[in-house]
Design a protein that fits this description.
11% strand; 12 helices; alpha/beta; 48% helix; 6-stranded mixed sheet
Length: 296
């Protein structure tokens, strides 16, 4: 997968999930020395259709994926189920499709990855991670980026963010490992009352079995990921590569090349080392909570 903003392709479903599945099918085909033409014949199609599938440019028929896996000698039921399940998820519109009027295509791809992931590691330097934001904090952040939006649009964006958070409490949902710079917690987004409520919410979130939260204190100085926020997503299917997500103002970059992922993974490991231990997070947040609102 090359770097660059991802756009939704015809047929619905997150583009990135199709690319991931196509990449795995290509690797399986090449490992068996099977040509695209032969694979196409197997599913009553052409070699060019296989090429488009492997590039993630078309939707996947479950029957085609099943036939290709058989042709490629994939007999392990867990591996077959994982890849067929990924095909099903890549084709089906996600719940977020109802928010298409306020949701850019490049972020729809991320929501597909987020929903399919088993582990989300994220580093934030400006805002509380979206998956951990309170309603009022989310509203304040969204209004910063959409100052001219109508009240209805703001409400829909807030609702979208809150619905995303349900993955943290669903059965089989992903683990979230978030590292937050102390500056995030001292930046008065929405005012004192909003920040107090947000920090209280983070204290509760840090107790969830699905959440690991660390704070990087000011005294840690500079650190490996000072360049900006990012997320690394891992998937339950062992054959699927991790994906790095770097959000920009009007687009996003998705990276799954090994050297790129390794670079970000090392940066993430460094910030985890620089940060305070997860067990200390409630105490750190409690002290910050006591400081907020005090006269300077």
């Amino acid at each position: 997968m090359s770097a660059g903003s991802q756009e939704e392709a015809p047929g619905g479903g997150p583009t990135v999930l199709r690319i991931l599945l196509g990449s795995q099918l290509r690797k399986l085909r090449e490992s068996k020395g099977i040509t695209r033409e032969a694979a196409g014949y197997e599913i009553r199609a052409s070699g060019s259709k296989i090429s488009r599938m492997e590039l993630g440019r078309v939707s996947f028929k479950e029957r085609d994926v099943t036939d290709l896996l058989t042709m490629y000698g994939v007999s392990d039921s867990a591996e077959r189920d994982a890849l067929i399940g990924l095909a099903r998820q890549a084709n089906n519109p996600g719940w977020w499709q109802h928010f298409g009027d306020v949701l850019p295509n490049w972020f729809q791809a991320y929501l597909g990855l987020e929903a399919a992931s088993s582990l989300i590691r994220t580093y934030e330097i400006q805002f509380v991670p979206g998956l951990l934001q309170t309603q009022d904090y989310a509203r304040a952040v969204i209004m910063l980026g959409h100052a001219g939006a109508t009240a209805d649009e703001i409400n829909r964006r807030v609702d979208l963010r809150l619905q995303r958070q349900q993955i943290l409490t669903r059965n089989g949902g992903p683990q979230l490992w978030a590292v937050i710079d102390e500056a995030v917690l001292r930046r008065p987004i929405g005012g004192v009352d909003v920040m107090r409520a947000q920090i209280e919410s983070l204290i509760e979130a840090s107790k969830l079995p699905s959440v690991r939260l660390q704070i990087i204190p000011f005294q840690a100085g500079g650190h490996a990921a000072a360049g900006g926020p990012f997320a690394i997503l891992r998937f339950p299917e062992p054959e699927l590569p991790d994906v790095v997500y770097v959000e920009q103002l009007t687009s996003a970059i998705y990276l799954d090349k090994r050297e790129d992922v390794d670079h970000y993974a090392m940066a993430m490991e460094r910030v985890c080392i620089d940060a305070e231990a997860p067990n200390d997070t409630p105490e750190i947040l409690g002290k910050l909570l006591n400081e907020i609102g005090r006269p300077a």
